[in-house]
Amino acid sequence: MMQVSVQGISVWGPGLSGWPHTARVLQGQEDWEPAPVQVPPATCLPANERRRCGPLTRLAIALAEEACAQAGVQAADIRGVFASSNGDGAVVDSILTALSTPGGEVSPTQFHNSVHNAPAGYWTIGHASLAPVVALGCYDWSFAQGLLKAAAECVVENAPVLFVAYDLPIPGPIGKVRITHNTFGCAFVLVPQARQGAVCTLDITHAPGAMAQDTTLPPQLAELARSNPAAGGLALLQQIASGQEGTVHMTCQPGTILAEVKPC
Question: What would be one Pfam family of this protein (predicted)?
Answer without folding.
Answer: Ketoacyl-synt_2
